[in-house]
Structures are given as C-alpha cells and as structure tokens.
Design goal:
Number of helices: 12
C-alpha cells in the first residue's frame, strides 16, 4: 500500500454520502492511534499536518512516521498539508512527498485568492498532487489560524462556483458556521445548511470540506476538568450536524480538537492516579488508546465511513 491522493476517496464519498476523516497529527502516538482505528474499521484516511505540527515535530519526522504507519498497517493514506499559507510552503510539501495540499488564501481579497490558488493548483497538478482551497473565513483559533468571530464570513455560493471554475481546485473548504478550537458556539449550535445545499447545487461535482468540525465530546472535557483541567463551557459541532453535512457534498471532515482532548484527558487521569510514575510510555500508551477509541467512534457513528476503504 502507499501514500495516495484524495481524488478517489472523494469520488466514492460523493456517490455514497459519507465523509472521510482528516485527522491532524503531531507525534507518533497520535498517528498510531488514528491508523489503528482506521485499519480496524477498514476506513479511508487522511492524515494532515498543520503549521504548528511542522514547527513542533518537523516535516521529515512526520512524513517518515506516516510512511511507517503505511508499512505497519497496509493502509492507503493521504498525507495532507493543512492551511498552507503561501505558494512556497505548498510547493515544499509537494516536493517532500505530500499527496494533498491546502492553500488557504481566504484572508485575501477574492481575486487574489483565485490567483494564489491557481498558482498552487498548476504546480501541484503537474506533480499529481490534489489541492484544497478555502473560501470564506472560519472564526476561532488553531495554530496560526486566528479569526475573530466579527471577521468570520460565510461562503457565498455564487462566488464558490466562480472560484472553482477559475482555479481548477480539487476540493473547497466552506464556511457555514463551524469554527476552530474547543469553543465553537456560545449559544445553540448552528450551521447554515441552506447555504451548504446551494453551494452543493452549483458545484455538485466538487468535494466540500468542513473545517473546525470536532464535536468536543463532553466526556473528554469532563475528564480533563476532573483531573485538574480548566476548560469550562467547551462546545463543538453536534454529531448529527456532521452527518447531515455529508449529505450535501461534504467529503472531508477536519478533526483536531477532539484528538487533543482525548489525549490530554487520559494523560491527566493517569498522572493524577499514578503520581509515582515518570515513564512517558506509561501515560502515552493509554493516551494512544483513547485516541484510537475516539477515532473509531467518529468513523462509525459520525462519518459513516466504516467499511468504505
């Protein structure tokens, strides 16, 4: 098996109304937990690397860990750059063996976003690499992505159609109400499904992407707080909303916060109950198991992607 692009994954997803999980990775235990879950569920898988992950672990380590995961599990895995901020970082990741890259030009005016995205598309496609872009802005904070809620704007359906036509991008991240981080909604959760349906209607063959799609599972928040954490009021996207989005062209669902919460909750619990231990394997092992269980839950109950590889 091998590193693969997202093209075939998304075509199958579009036809069968399920979504592929795109999980952010930062170290060995996170990768192991995710791929073991995908292997047991026979599910398609995207592992993605953010700016923060590149800075923390360095790309060479992460790409080799993903290659090791393929050797260990026999899975086909897409390795994706999350929120590439300019042409140079996208080019570097393409040259380093990534099979999918995201160019995030959403902070730029519409025409500049088109120009930048088209530049990345032309280079990446010449190397057989898929490209994701973003139109509209998500609120919240994640690594180097920081957008105040007042400046978050939803994706305009007609602009989305024009953008895809002019850039030739393979998939499009849309803003319909999700946000980065653990505090996605202050009141009742809301996603603009009418907007999503209109976008899907205008570009039915374009796979759509939902960023900021962690559900912020209450059990992990509660466990973090029980063992010394301080994250009150965290709230994510309800699981039923993710399922609904997959019916309207959403083929890729980004999950990062839930991984962090699952891992941190288990580490806090272990260290609180075993203050005498100082062997990292003792607490990173259970944390890896927590990630595996959480990812399996996502694949089976939220993404409906079990058995779809």
């Amino acid at each position: 098996m091998s590193l693969v692009t997202t093209k075939d994954m998304f075509q199958k997803s579009l036809k069968n109304d399920y979504a592929v999980g795109a999980f952010n990775v930062n170290n060995m235990e996170i990768i192991q937990g995710i791929v073991e879950a995908a292997q047991e569920e026979n599910a398609p898988l995207i592992l993605q690397v953010s700016a923060g992950a590149r800075k923390y672990a360095k790309p060479a380590y992460l790409t080799k860990l993903v290659e090791a995961a393929i050797l260990d599990t026999g899975l086909d895995i897409a390795l994706h750059l999350d929120h590439g901020e300019d042409f140079d970082i996208c080019k570097k990741c393409v040259d380093d063996g990534f099979t999918s890259v995201m160019i995030d030009g959403s902070k730029h005016p519409f025409e500049e976003n088109i120009r930048l995205t088209k530049e990345v598309v032309e280079y990446a496609h010449s190397k057989g690499v898929s490209v994701e872009a973003e139109l509209g802005k998500l609120a919240g904070i994640e690594d180097n992505v920081n957008v105040d809620a007042r400046n978050a704007t939803f994706t305009d359906p007609e602009e989305a159609a024009e953008f895809v036509e002019k850039t030739g991008v393979d998939s499009l991240a849309v803003a319909i109400g999700t946000s980065h981080g653990a505090y996605k909604f202050k009141g009742e959760p809301y996603l603009d499904f009418e907007r999503l349906q209109e976008i899907n209607k205008l570009i039915p063959d374009t796979p759509l992407v939902l960023h900021g799609a962690s559900t912020v599972l209450p059990e992990f928040v509660a466990k973090c707080n029980e063992y010394g954490g301080d994250i009150p009021g965290a709230q994510g996207v309800p699981e039923d909303m993710i399922k609904t989005a997959a019916k309207y062209g959403v083929c890729k669902v980004n999950i990062d916060t839930d991984l962090r919460l699952a891992m941190t909750a288990e580490i806090r619990k272990y260290l609180a109950e075993h203050p005498e231990d100082f062997d990292p394997r003792k607490y990173l092992g259970p944390a890896r198991d927590a990630i595996k269980g959480m990812v399996q839950h996502k694949i089976k109950n939220v993404l409906n992607a079990s058995g779809k590889r």
